[in-house]
Design goal:
The protein starts with 5 loop residues before the first strand and ends in a 6-residue tail after the last strand. The chain has three domains: about 130 residues, Periplasmic binding protein-like II (D-Maltodextrin-Binding Protein, domain 2, 3-Layer(aba) Sandwich); about 90 residues, 3-Layer(aba) Sandwich (D-Maltodextrin-Binding Protein, domain 2); about 70 residues, 2-Layer Sandwich (Alpha-Beta Plaits). Strand 3 and strand 4 form a beta hairpin. The strands form three sheets. It has a seven-stranded mixed sheet with strand order 2-3-4-1-5-12-6. A five-stranded mixed sheet has the order 9-8-10-7-11. A four-stranded antiparallel sheet has the order 14-15-13-16, covered by helices on one side. The radius of gyration is 24 Å and the shape is globular. Helix content is about 30%, strand content about 30%. It has about 300 residues and is of the alpha+beta class. The chain contains nine helices and 16 strands. It binds 1-O-pyrophosphono-5-O-phosphono-alpha-D-ribofuranose (PRP) and zinc ion (ZN). The site of zinc ion has 2 residues, from loops.
Length: about 300
């Protein structure tokens, strides 16, 4: 890896890994993986990615080892609070929330326990991998509980007698159920985020950093957008455009030998549901097609 190549840190193995690699591919990156498999070398762009533990990503970005990183908001927030305690403000720039990695940081109580909600927390011990986020929450809500840090397997802490309850990431909830824990209040909604180093990007790298960031944004926009085509009576055009979520002004084309009917083409910036199609039909539309968009450049 030479100095003027862009480095992006992604999670080595976990809930974000596959999504991150897919996103980079959709940005046009072709890559080969080194023998150690921990670096992906870009073949058609000066972009390489490092596969690392998610907890290491904020530090790599903050220290400018990597120009960019993709990491869950849960990890970013925990590290941001750690830096803030050391007097470091804005250790990384959060450029964009991505459309994957949705999960929540929530309290969980053992089944059958007297503890049911945060109002029962005073005097209790909470096991978590996110001590700073939890302490911050306790402080803001005037709750007096202790926090014990676990770097993994937090869910077994109550049965080990190390804590009365836990605060951990929940996605499907299967891990909690398997450990006979009941989900309580959410203290942070998390999602994968694109972050950039706070250090100025050197001039020889800015073009490609900006291009990659724009492409990532473009991929995100496309995934949430649809191209819709239909036939409609010209008189129903206003009603129809009002029904379409996040639609730009439509292209209206005359239809040959169809009195008063036009073809309507439009990009919707939101997903289109069956109920919308049914409403369009009621408004007089027919031959309605919803197509995925492959690429889009504003
Ligand atoms: C989290 C959490 C649980 C699991 C919950 O760990 O610690 O073990 O996910 O998911 P579920 O609700 O779908 O069962 P994660 O996989 O993020 O690993 P890490 O915290 O060690 O990075
Ligand atoms: Zn982790």
């Amino acid at each position: 890896m030479t100095q003027d190549r862009i480095k992006i840190a992604v999670q080595k193995s976990g809930r974000l890994t596959e999504h991150c690699l897919e996103l980079l591919q959709q940005c046009g990156l072709k890559y080969s993986r080194g023998r150690d498999q921990l670096i992906g070398y870009g073949e058609n762009m000066p972009v390489d990615f490092l596969l690392v533990r998610d907890d290491d990503i904020p530090g790599l970005v903050r220290d400018d080892v990597c120009d960019l990183g993709i990491c869950g908001l849960n990890v970013l927030e925990e590290k941001r609070l750690a830096y803030a305690r050391k007097g470091v403000e804005e250790p990384f720039k959060v450029l964009q929330k991505l459309d994957y990695g949705h999960c929540r940081l929530a309290f969980a109580y053992p089944e059958g326990s007297d503890l049911k909600s945060v109002s029962d927390l005073n005097g209790q011990t909470i096991a978590t991998s996110y001590p700073r986020i939890v302490e911050d929450y306790l402080q803001k809500n005037n709750l007096n509980a202790s926090v014990v840090e676990f770097s993994g397997a937090v869910e077994i802490a109550p049965s080990l007698g190390r804590a009365e309850l836990i605060c951990d990431l929940v996605s499907t909830g299967a891990t909690l159920t398997a450990n006979r824990l009941v989900e309580g209040e959410t203290i942070l909604e998390s999602v994968a985020c694109l972050v950039q180093t706070p250090v100025d990007i050197p001039e020889e790298k800015t073009e490609w950093v900006n291009r990659l960031v724009e492409r990532i944004k473009g991929v995100q926009e496309v995934r949430g957008s649809k191209y819709i085509m239909m036939h409609a009576p010209r008189s129903a055009l206003t009603e129809i455009t009002d029904l379409l979520p996040g639609a730009e002004s439509p292209t209206v084309l005359p239809l040959e030998e169809a009195d008063g009917k036009v073809a309507v083409h439009v990009v919707c910036r939101e997903n289109v549901f069956w109920s919308t199609l049914e409403d369009l039909k009621k408004a007089g539309a027919s031959s309605i097609l919803v197509l995925p968009i492959e690429k889009m450049l504003a």
